[in-house]
Every structure is written in C-alpha cells, then in structure tokens.
Amino acid sequence: MLPAANNPVWMQIATGKRPVRTEKLAINLFAKNMAMSLARDSSPANVQQLAARTYEFFLKYEKIFASEFDKILA
Amino acid sequence: MLTTANSELLSIPEVQSAIAAGESLFLAGSREALSQLPQGNWIGGTIPYFMADEGGLMSEDRIFVTKIPDFALEVKAADYGPENLADLYREAPANGFTFLVLPASTVVHKTFAEQAPSYDGFLFRPVLGWVTGVRVDRIGKEAPAVFNGKTGRAFDARGAALHVTLPANKAVDLEIVNIFESGGGKLIRFQEAGFRVSRCFIDGKPENLAAYITSKRIPLEFPLVGEYNGSAINVSFQSVDATAGTVDLYAPVFPDVDYHFAKPVEDYAGAFGNAIPAEEVRPAFACNCILNYLYGKLEGKTTGRVTGPITFGEIAHLLLNQTMVQLYFRDIE
Predict the structure, then answer these.
(1) pTM value?
(2) What is the ipTM of this complex?
(3) Residue A44 vs residues A15, A50, A61: alpha-carbon distances, Å
(4) What is the pLDDT of residues B107-130, one digit of tens each?
(5) What is the DSSP string of B19-84?
(6) How many CB atoms lie under 10 A from the CB of residue A40?
(7) Which of A29, A30, A57, A59 to mutate to test the interface with B (most CBs of B within 10 A)?
(8) In angstroms, rounded to a whole number, what is the distance separating the alpha carbons of residues B105 and B101?
(9) How far apart, in whole angstroms, are the C-alpha atoms of residue A44 and residue A55?
(10) CB contact, 8 Å: A74 with chain B?
C-alpha cells in the first residue's frame, strides 16, 4: 500500500532527497527525468508537479515494481 | 511468472500464412521481403541482419516475426510523423505497450530521440522497438523504411507503431542488456542536447570534444556511457570531424547527464553470454545494435539464447545505442 498522495515522501523522491537507484530501467529513467526537470526549473510549482508525477508513477507500477518500491519507501 | 518467447525467423510464405490467419505481428525484414506481405494487423521495419538460434546472420528473404500473444485485448497499427509523434503516447493503451519502428536518420527518428523524455506519457506508456536500416553496403543508396501493414503503406519518413492493450493481470517489463560500463576517468558534460556536439566540459574544463578525441586517440568503437541513476545509457559515435571540430552521434546527448568514455570490451559475444543467464526465460522480443554486430563480429556467434533483429538503434522508452532491448510479459495479481 503506497503512502497517500500528499505524503512528503513523494517530494523527497522527486527532489532527490530520497535516493533512487535500482535494477529497473523505467524507475531509474524516471528518477533521472525528475532530476533533469528540477535542474531546468526548481520553482515550487515545478517541485509540486514533480511530486504529484512521482506518486502517479508509483501508483502505475505499484504491483510490477513492488520490491523496488518497498526499498525506496523504507 | 514470465511467459516464454514467441519470436522467430520465418520464410515469406510462412509470414503470409500467419497474416492471413489473422495473427497480429511485429516484423523485421528486408524491404523486398516485407513488400510481399498482404495487408493485416502488422507493422514492420526494414533490416536484413538478425541474431538467430544459429548465430548472427544476414538474410534478405526471411523475416523475423514477433507474434502478439493471444492474451492481448486489442492490437492497433498506426503511423506517425514528426508533427504528431506526441499522439503516440495519447493513443497508447493505459495498460499495455507500444511497438515502434522509426527509419534511421530521419526527422521522425531524431524527433523521437530528442523529445520522447518530454512527452506526456513518457515511461507511463511503455514504448519499445528499434530504428530501421539497410544492408551496410547500401547505406546512403537505399532508404530504410517502415510498414503499416493495416493500411498496406510503406514510409521512408514516418514511424509505424503497434499499440497492444493487455488485460489487467498482465504487465510488460522492459529490460536492457548493456555490455558497456563507464571507464571512469574524465567526466564529460554537455550544455546543449543534440546529435552533433562540439563544445563540452571535461572534468569541468571547456573543451572541443572532436579535438579531445583526436588528440587522445579515443577509439570510436566504444560509446559514451551516460549515468541515469544506476542505468548505463550509451551514446555511440558516428564520426569525428577534427577540421570542423564536430562529433556526430547516433543518439543525442543531454545536459545534466554525466558521461564517461566506455571501458573497452574485447569479446562482445562472451560479454552478452555472461550477462544473460542460460536458465533465464527468453524474452518475448529482443533486438540488438548493428554496431555490436559489426564491431563484435557477431556473424555466426550467439548472444546467450536471445534472438531478434540487429538494428540501427534500439528503443526502450527512449532511443538507445549499442544495447540489447528485451521485452518480458509478467503476470500480476
């Protein structure tokens, strides 16, 4: 079960404060894409958007990447 | 649970029969071979190089066939130009994936390479496939193409896609096998994205990449390796023009990515064999890069038990170089 959409963990992941480094291509590309977006635009609005996007990504792949997500969210 | 492979090299009559029987197919073959196929629920791309069970080979009268599994709910063929490539993601299924083939060195190929990470749906709508090509002795004389089997049309400047909707209890797992890793050494960064580069920063110092490669005699066989949170993403060298001070690449570099020159690999077949466990279930689809085939002298050699087309670029969410792409289907609760 994922944390709620408004849980601060999503912002931590989106901003790189909670590290993401896995064996799964999609997860790693997602984390890198977030970091690149943040490097271009670190405004609070973009950070909020990235956090929401992170929650959506985890929701989408919750079952397929369950063990990887457990490690990230631990 | 992973399902077993459903991809093989077939004769033209065998593929004609499969299409007539209503199978949905993802195809790779020469233009001559694909042009002989009837309309049906298939897309294809031109390439005459394959990794077969017996090893790497070139064939202009056989077609590599990936059959879409029977558990797919819907399979829809479409084609896209650079002007509406973003529609690929809007039209992709919510649960499923999209096979995509793009003709090499076209605007649609380059648009996908540069823009895919910015499209709404990137990573949320899995896209995999490859860049189509021709016999290497016909590069510049013959155009790579893609085929939309549904309409019966072939395109030199558009991409063809097959959107596959899966039931809720199935998901795709896109994996890559990259035998290259960072060689360590100098850190290379770019300020601008693109397939052609001149300026860069090497260990923080502004340099001209072409001049650096020439002066240090960096071998062009081995790619730049970009670091993506633990995934190694290659950018292969096409050519260096020391006079003009430019380097042409087979994929774009991006700002804010750390690149290093790759550690050299001597035995490509061995490296792929080591990277792919023998007991592992074969992927439902795989492809590998023509540069690996040529530099690694893979004709007659195998790469583990993985077979598939040998392509002018690979796609697993984004454009890749010198990488094996694998598609697996997984059961989910």
Answers:
(1) 0.97
(2) 0.96
(3) 11, 10, 26
(4) 999 999 999 999 999 999 999 999
(5) HHTT--EEEEE-HHHHTTPPSSSEEEEE--EEEETTEEEE-SSEEEEEEPPTT-SEEEEEEE-GGG
(6) 9
(7) A29
(8) 12
(9) 17
(10) no
